[in-house]
Amino acid sequence: MIAIIDYGVGNLRSVEKAFHFIGCKASVSSDRDFIMEADAAVLPGVGAFADAMNSLKSTGMADVVGSFIKSGKPFLGICLGMQLLFDYSEEGGEKVKGLGIFRGSVRKLPMDIKLKIPHMGWNSIQVREDCPLFRGLGVNPYVYFVHSYCLKARDRDIVAATTDYGIEFDVAIWKDNTFATQFHPEKSGETGLRILRNFAGL
Known about the structure:
Blueprint: E1 2-5, H1 12-21, E2 26-29, H2 32-37, E3 40-43, H3 49-59, H4 61-71, E4 75-78, H5 80-83, E5 88-89, E6 96-97, E7 104-108, E8 119-124, E9 126-127, E10 142-147, E11 149-153, E12 159-164, E13 168-175, E14 178-181, H6 189-200
């Protein structure tokens, strides 16, 4: 069973449906015991960083995320769910503290890249071939993005994929049992489904 962590932020059901489509048992839940007993957990997210952090704390899911990661079982953050794992975001013009599980910052895509912001649509990514999340994807797969803020991880060893959208930035991380992507696997066609299958098979 894959637990999709419900902390009052949208985009949960589309992730659940994607797992169901590939034949996995998955359920959206805000029940600590259910999540901790699951075989794997997913933290999706769309919206504002500060609002999401407030929701994580008020629902008690901030502690659940930390505890689940420490359990050693597979964990996947998606989009805002990746950004929340880091030290802080500059969304809103000030530093908003994140979960601090990994070192790094989330910053607005610069306006001078002369490309449309938010970054919305398909982009190729450069992946680490040894990352189990990207097994079988080939060279520079295309995935789907919707975001205005990008990650700069301090520990470069955890970066599993980057992309170039006017500037190069980090779009996936991997450390031990923890994976996270800036892009949306659930919206990335067959490539995204392969990523979710790889995760479910860990």
